[in-house]
Amino acid sequence: MNATDLLKKLHAHLGQVVLGKPDQTKLALTCLAARGHLLLEDVPGVGKTTLAEGLARAFGLSFARVQFTADLLPSDILGAQVFLQQQGTFEFRPGPIFHQVVLADELNRAPPRTQSALLEAMAQGQVSLDGVTRPLPAPFVVIATQNPLDLAGTYPLPDSQLDRFLMRLSLGHLDPGLEADLLVSRRGDPLATLVPVATPAELTTLQQAADAVRVSKDVADYAVQLASATRTHTDVERGVSTRAVLALMAAARAWALWDARDFVSPGDVRAVLKAALSHRLLLKSSMQGAFSRDEAAHLVDEIARRVAPPR
Fold first, then answer.
1. What are phi and psi of 32, to 5 degrees?
2. What domain count does the chain have?
3. For 69-109, what is each residue's pLDDT tens digit?
4. Could you tell me the pTM of the whole model?
5. Domain range spanning residue 257?
6. Number of other residues whose CB lies within 10 A of the CB of residue 104
7. What is the DSSP string of 197-236?
8. Distance between CA atoms of 244 and 79, rounded to whole angstroms?
9. Could you tell me if 257 and 156 lie in one domain?
10. Per-residue pLDDT tens for 241-258?
11. What is the 3-state secondary structure (H, E, C) of 115-147?
């Protein structure tokens, strides 16, 4: 099965449990194909956890969920050395980070020290503890959920943490008609019936296919112009970094697979632009948090309209 057919099969399969969100599901699959980590920001109860676990189940990946709280310690995520009294030695007990898909649920309810425990894992696919570096299983992806910062008991994610996420998505509430149908039809846990339709090896093949998609000089210049526009915009305190441009292009390569193309078009760049860049902007007009997500998305839309794509 080629990459395009596999993506479409997975998209239809996830649509059985993540109802009424085809665009977000498509972007989430694109994020995994681009070897990226995914941040889901929204109010509780709109299906963020369902999407995260659904992605893991669809590919048959090992899955762990970590509920982030104010008293969570880095060792609760990474693991720790445990003293074995009978043997008189220490043994490393791996934490939940040693799974292929890790759901960091309500990531911003933990303090910065605990949040930072994910940084090395997300950037390099490894964990360094007690002078020993341990590789994480491949493929490896962190899917984090985040509550809006106007909710009680939240800590803002630092820029270094936000920058590790390839995309940020918001699911939003269901259409009222679909929500009413859900109340009538759904019984029990929908994920219980979701079986794998792909393998971890097929995800790796999908990622390799995205890596092989070509980028022309014109499209690369277009992406840089979009990034540069965020750095000079009067409403932006700090624009996106070079890492953000690399993330944007990785996402655009993966998006091209949906149309079975081996090259990136300007349309691919625009399709992933908001998801890849909006969370990396620091705005002048508002505190990062409650409403900055929508403001940043509107600003990215404005920049996309202003910067002409190559012909």
1. -65, -40
2. 2
3. 989 999 999 998 888 888 888 888 999 999 999 999 999 88
4. 0.92
5. 213-305
6. 28
7. SS-HHHHHHHHHHHHT-B--HHHHHHHHHHHHHHHH-TTE
8. 30
9. no
10. 999 999 999 999 999 999
11. HHHHHHHHHHCEEEECCEEEECCCCCEEEEEEC
